[in-house]
């Protein structure tokens, strides 16, 4: 197992915020205030805070609420945190130009941050969720570089762990090894899934003590600097049945259709329609999309948002995506970025076996 690089170690102990990127994010939020005719906005969710602060860690428990809230107003950015968190936040997570206030650990975090507004009544995040999501869509240069590094780390973790697996490796052993690799590079494993051959029917398979057997799927969603990279890989210890190989090729063809539909200016619900048609087109049946979510834009949330018929957001350049079409016993998933030259796969490791699908290298099942 490799150890974290010096750059990864530095990321874990210093605020990642980039001055130029942060200035652009502040401009985008001020535009939201201008449109709403308001003078302040209170940010309280992990997604909004990590985006706006450009990667600061504002959590303690991965399952808990943020331990900070931030008031953006015309005069600047004002972060409020609990008194027992303030020292670490000031030393390691506070970007330049952000003021820091505290509230007792037993106090009311959001109320204290709202009270910093001139009128004590800031715009609340829930009223501008659509506008904030649009502000997050287009990644900026420094965060794009960080996202690429994280995605490569996640893909390499998959290669290292699955290449060492055996049919006797249990699902818990496999995901624990993935967790160790993700944490070792300064990231947080938000999702770890695995199904061996005895549990291949489950598409969101939390691990068990079952051995993985002849074939297994592993899924990692890793977060660092607020950004979340998502990747699925398969490992098998035989040549695969003709039915499995055919299904793997067809699910890659479904993904290729989705990739072709992911272009600037298209709406997410238009892509959703293409997803539904692609399943039928490639022999999976018209109802296959109903059996699992299909992914969507990525970035500071696992999906931002999940694609549905109601999601009318327009796609923009430099926007990340994670589509995850699946069928019985098959799934394909990578984190990609829409660039002016097309979709670029971020979660790539040159050691992983691939095949060409519609002009792009896509992952095959690893056969150690």
UniProtKB/TrEMBL annotation:
<feature type="region of interest" description="Disordered">
    <location>
        <begin position="1"/>
        <end position="21"/>
    </location>
</feature>
<dbReference type="InterPro" id="IPR036005">
    <property type="entry name" value="Creatinase/aminopeptidase-like"/>
</dbReference>
<dbReference type="InterPro" id="IPR000994">
    <property type="entry name" value="Pept_M24"/>
</dbReference>
<dbReference type="InterPro" id="IPR050659">
    <property type="entry name" value="Peptidase_M24B"/>
</dbReference>
<protein>
    <submittedName>
        <fullName>Xaa-Pro aminopeptidase</fullName>
    </submittedName>
</protein>
<dbReference type="GO" id="GO:0004177">
    <property type="term" value="F:aminopeptidase activity"/>
</dbReference>
<dbReference type="Pfam" id="PF00557">
    <property type="entry name" value="Peptidase_M24"/>
</dbReference>
<keyword id="KW-0031">Aminopeptidase</keyword>
<feature type="domain" description="Peptidase M24">
    <location>
        <begin position="154"/>
        <end position="340"/>
    </location>
</feature>
<keyword id="KW-0645">Protease</keyword>
<keyword id="KW-0378">Hydrolase</keyword>
<feature type="compositionally biased region" description="Polar residues">
    <location>
        <begin position="1"/>
        <end position="16"/>
    </location>
</feature>
């Amino acid at each position: 197992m490799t150890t974290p690089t010096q750059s990864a170690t530095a990321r874990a102990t210093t605020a990642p915020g980039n001055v130029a990127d942060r200035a652009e994010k502040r401009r985008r939020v001020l535009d939201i205030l201008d449109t709403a005719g308001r003078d302040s906005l209170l940010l309280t969710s992990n997604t909004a805070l990590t985006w706006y602060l450009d990667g600061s860690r504002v959590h303690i428990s991965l399952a808990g609420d943020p331990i900070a809230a931030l008031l953006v107003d015309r005069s600047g950015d004002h972060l409020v945190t609990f008194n027992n968190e303030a020292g670490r936040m000031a030393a390691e997570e506070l970007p330049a130009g952000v003021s820091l206030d505290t509230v007792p650990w037993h106090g009311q975090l959001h109320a204290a941050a709202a009270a910093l507004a001139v009128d004590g009544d800031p715009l609340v995040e829930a009223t501008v969720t659509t506008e904030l999501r649009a502000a997050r869509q287009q990644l900026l240069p420094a965060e794009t570089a960080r996202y690429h590094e994280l995605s490569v780390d996640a893909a390499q973790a998959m290669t290292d762990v699955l290449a060492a697996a055996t049919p006797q490796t249990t699902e818990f052993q496999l995901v624990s090894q993935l967790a160790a690799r993700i944490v070792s590079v300064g990231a947080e494993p938000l999702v770890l899934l695995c199904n061996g051959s005895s549990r291949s029917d489950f598409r969101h398979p939390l691990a068990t003590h079952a051995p993985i057997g002849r074939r297994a799927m592993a899924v990692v969603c890793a977060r660092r600097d607020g950004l979340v990279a998502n990747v699925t890989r398969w490992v098998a210890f035989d040549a695969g049945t003709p039915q499995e190989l055919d299904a793997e090729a067809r699910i890659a063809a479904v993904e290729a259709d989705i990739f072709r539909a992911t272009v600037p200016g298209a709406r997410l619900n238009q892509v959703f329609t293409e997803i539904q048609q692609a399943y039928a087109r490639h022999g999976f049946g018209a109802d296959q999309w109903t059996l699992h979510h299909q992914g969507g834009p990525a970035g500071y949330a696992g999906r931002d948002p999940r694609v549905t018929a109601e999601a009318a957001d327009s796609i923009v350049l430099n926007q990340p995506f994670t589509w995850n079409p699946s069928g019985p016993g098959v799934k394909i998933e990578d984190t990609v970025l829409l660039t002016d030259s097309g979709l670029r796969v971020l979660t790539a490791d040159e050691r992983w076996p691939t095949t060409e699908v519609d002009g792009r290298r896509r992952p095959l099942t690893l056969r150690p």
